[in-house]
Amino acid sequence: MSEAIDVLIPAIEKDLGTLPYVIDAVRQNAAHPVGHIFIVAPQSRRIKRLCRAKNCVFVDETRVLPIAKDDIRYRTRRWDRSGWMLQQLIKLSGDRICTTSHFLVMDADTVLIRPHRFLKEGRTGFYCRKWSQPEYFRMYRRLMGARPRRPASFVAHYMLFSKSVLSRLKRRIEELHRTRWYKAILRCIDRSHPFAFSEYETYGNFLYALHPERVLIKKARNKSLSGGMRHLTPERIRRLARTWRSLSFHKRKHYSRAAGKKA
Fold first, then answer.
1. Which end of the chain is less congested by CB atoms within 10 angstroms, N or C?
2. For residues 54-89, b (16+ Cβ closer than 10 Å) or e, as one string?
């Protein structure tokens, strides 16, 4: 029998259009017994109501880290990425939230439409793409003191984390920078760059550097769509699933200051 996994989904109210589908799809398409699904979010009656309806665990995002969005201050006159950065730090805190030895992080705008097996014979399956932001790799070198091996890009909207490997990653960051891991990340980012850090790229490259034999690279086959999941008929989803593994419905493309204040 496959190993049971918890699921962690950081979310905000803007994600409520896709979040119910994300939850249902991970239960249907994760080829593992799914334990708890943790929804980490700001205080929101609507999100709490959804958690009750979907049998998920609501986690107040202010209780995950000793810093909040307003403490991050990752913005320029044109954009505000503080909330985006906070969500990445929340994902890297999943070892404190989840109860299983491995946990799946899902972006709240991405829906699995085909079965996914994340663990097979001691190897972790990563759903990868060919392109990434060059700044992610420059940041990795500043943070980790080494070049990323990067056989592919690990940025694919969802990832399985090992709690023990994640804890080891954070300990390594703290040893190198002599401060808490989240403070080190915030010190190292280039605040003039709107794509300064990737939690997926960092964890994936760290595991690959430690144990390349434990990494199984798969094609992401992620399709970005406009509109919403509710507009897709079951037949359209079946047709899409012949080619794609997941669908993403991105609504925050430009990260303007106005958009950032709502995040």
1. N
2. eebbbbebeebbeeebeebebbeeebbbbbbbbbbb
Statement: the pTM of the whole predicted model exceeds 0.90: yes
The CATH number that applies at residue 190 is 3.90.550.10
pLDDT at residue 260 in the model: 36
Per-residue pLDDT tens for 213-234? 999 999 999 999 988 898 899 9
Which helix (H) or strand (E) covers residue 217, if one does?
strand 215-219
Q: How would you classify the pairing of strands 110-112 and 246-248?
A: antiparallel
d(Cα 102, Cα 6) in Å, to the nearest integer?
A: 7
| Domain range for 104 | 5-262
Orientation of helix 199-210 relative to helix 82-91, angle to 10°: 30
Give the tokens for residue 70.
């307003």
Counted domains in the chain: 1
Any idea what DSSP says for residue 63? Answer: G
Token pair 């040893």 in the structure block, residue: 175
